[in-house]
Each structure stands twice: as C-alpha cells, then as structure tokens.
Design a protein that fits this description.
The chain is mostly helical. The chain is built from eleven helices and no strands.
C-alpha cells in the first residue's frame, strides 16, 4: 500500500552495461554488489512479473544498497500494467493522492481496475487512497484483491497492518506486519509499527488487569 519511490540508482560505469535479460540474470549472481545493482536496474526498467522472484531474493542481499535498489525495482515492476492508458491513469491517481484529492485518486484507480482487473497495483493504489480517506472497509477489500493477484506484495501486507492498527486491532496489525517483514525484511516502518502495537497491547492489558 506504500507509495513507491522511483529508481534513483545509476548503474556504475565500472561494469559493462547489462544489455539483455540473460545478462541481468547472470549479473544478479556476481560477487560485486555494483554488478548486482546494475542487473537490478535493468530488470526494473525492462523486467516482467515473471522476474519478481529474482528481485524478491535480492531483498536479502548482503549489500544494503542492493537491497534498497531491489525494493525500488519491485515497485517499478509492479507499476507497469502493459496498458499505456492504464499506466497514465495510475500516474494521475498517484499525483491526486499526493495532493490529498482522494476522490479524484479513487476515481482514477477505479478506471485502472476496470481496464486491467488483473493488475494488482491498481487495486493496491486504490486501497491506499481509501485508507488515506479513512474508508478502512473498502481499503481492506482492495487489499484482499491484491493478495489474490500477488501474495508477495509487501506493500499491501503492510497496508493490512496499518489498517488494523487504526482500528485498534493490534494483534492483527502485528500479524500482518510480520508477514510483510517475512517478504521484505527491510521495512523499517513495519518493524516500528510492531513495536508500537506491542506497546499499546501491553497498556491495554495493564488497564484490564
């Protein structure tokens, strides 16, 4: 559910530029982190959903910069629907959401979903807009659709945690945030959410004792 960043890395010039998918796959296995980063950058620009497992694996890379690039690459991969009009509407919805024009964002993402119902990110972005608008029931429903299409979507997994936290259902929030961290252990926001939810649970138990 989290708004994605764009890929900010530039492949280091010390390594030959990746030119095709086979070179990218090979690059992910190289010992040098710069080579792995370059391979990820190529997949971010040119990869398809079938490449998701390759990117997910690099979320546990030994190098922190490679892990960061892998996360950014996944968001870019998820944000391509294969439909130019749908992608344009998605970008418009994101801009509306950032401007806190939630009705406009929800409408834009709704159009994306109508055009591409199998595109998980359309559902995820509308779930985010509903959450920001305070409509947690619809946000949960859209997160459910994301899970049907992409169970490894750590943004939606974390989104469940955010929703249940707002609903003061802290045990559920913790469980969902743990699922998000199981996919992407680099989500500091999810880890912080767990700590805060645990603190609030302890307070509730102390008051009821």
């Amino acid at each position: 559910m989290v708004l994605a960043a764009t890929l900010t890395c530039a492949p280091p010039s010390a390594f030959p530029q990746v030119k095709n998918h086979a070179q990218a796959v090979t690059g992910l296995k190289q010992a040098q982190p710069e080579a792995r980063a370059e391979a990820l950058a190529w997949l971010a620009r040119n990869g398809r959903m079938a490449d998701q497992p390759l990117l997910l694996g690099r979320l546990r890379d030994d190098d922190p910069r490679v892990r960061e690039i892998a996360e950014q690459a996944l968001w870019l991969l998820w944000s391509r629907s294969g439909d130019a009009v749908a992608d344009e509407r998605l970008a418009e919805g994101i801009e509306a959401m950032r401007s806190r024009r939630f009705d406009a964002a929800i409408a834009a993402f709704g159009e994306v979903i109508r055009r591409r119902p199998g595109f998980a990110e359309g559902w995820n972005k509308r779930a985010t807009a509903y959450f920001l608008a305070g409509d947690y029931r619809r946000s949960l429903a859209d997160c459910d659709e994301v899970m049907k299409l992409n169970p490894q979507h750590f943004g939606a997994l974390s989104g469940y945690g955010q929703i249940y936290f707002q609903l003061e259902q802290y045990e559920k929030a913790i469980a969902w945030w743990r699922r998000a961290l199981a996919v992407n252990p680099n989500m500091e926001g999810a880890a912080a959410g767990i700590r805060e939810a645990q603190r609030r649970l302890e307070e509730q138990r102390a008051h009821s004792a």
